[in-house]
Write a structure and sequence with these properties.
This protein is an alpha+beta fold and 236 residues long. It has 2 domains: 98 residues, no CATH class; 99 residues, no CATH class. It is built from 6 helices and 10 strands. Helix 1 crosses helix 5 and helix 2 packs across helix 5. 23% of the residues are buried.
Length: 236
């Protein structure tokens, strides 16, 4: 009879990822002790790489449904404070729910359309929102200004990638991403470590392939149909 582990807990620390990437560059082999200076420098490169990857898609583990009650007379809400974790990079969906549990989609307004809206502070039931992401926080502004505190605003947001932090920490990625991260990190640092040009090209090809496969294929993306409908609003 075959024997299986019965577990699904395999993980990689930042240090293991850094060491694997350095080995791919040819700067060190498996028997060498990598100096602390090198692991610290490559950890910084990994931090930068991970942050930049937030632009590559909508990873499901960074998508969160956030809700908060309306406050009478308050139009603007700090989503960074409400999430309690990080600055939401973007809003993917938004809707309002009444006391009876009925939900209605809120229209996401652009900065230009918000600027040209009249009577921005009239009281009523919100039907539009504008999200303004800044460096330190992201604010959501409602239109109309809530007339009561009986509604709940729901927003589905994409959060930032969590910091790697320490070499002993695990990576904020699913197991299926480990190979991609190893090769992408090697591609990031191979020029700095003077890897020969032909090997750099091979590393780059593999890194690009694994990155595209992870972010552009079906993994990490929600499997739903997409429907397009014409907007009922038009500019005059």
């Amino acid at each position: 009879m075959p024997t299986y582990s019965g577990t699904y807990t395999f993980g990689m620390t930042a240090l293991q990822t850094v060491q694997a990437a350095l080995r791919l560059t040819g700067a060190f082999d498996e028997y060498e002790t990598i100096p602390d200076t090198d692991t610290a420098n490559v950890l910084q490169a990994l931090e930068i790489l991970v942050k930049e990857m937030a632009q590559d898609g909508l990873p499901l583990w960074c998508v969160k449904d956030v809700s908060f009650p309306t406050v009478i007379g308050q139009a603007t809400y700090n989503l960074s404070t409400i999430t309690g974790t990080t600055l939401p990079l973007r809003i993917l969906d938004q809707y309002i729910v009444d006391q009876a549990g009925n939900s209605v989609t809120l229209i996401m307004t652009s900065r230009y359309d918000w600027d040209t809206l009249g009577q921005k502070f009239q009281p009523g039931i919100p039907n539009q929102v504008w999200y303004d992401p800044q460096l330190n926080n992201g604010t959501l502004t409602l239109y109309d200004v809530p007339i009561d505190a009986t509604h709940t605003i729901h927003v589905v947001v994409q959060l930032q990638m969590m910091d790697v932090g320490s070499l002993t920490n695990n990576l904020y990625f699913p197991q299926e991403a480990y190979r991609m991260l190893k090769w992408c990190l090697a591609d990031e640092i191979c020029l700095e470590y003077r890897t020969p040009a032909d090997e750099r090209r091979e590393i780059n090809e593999k890194a690009t392939g694994y990155r595209d496969k992870f972010f552009n294929a079906e993994f990490g993306q929600e499997q739903t149909s997409v429907f397009f409908t014409p907007s009922e609003r038009q500019r005059m």
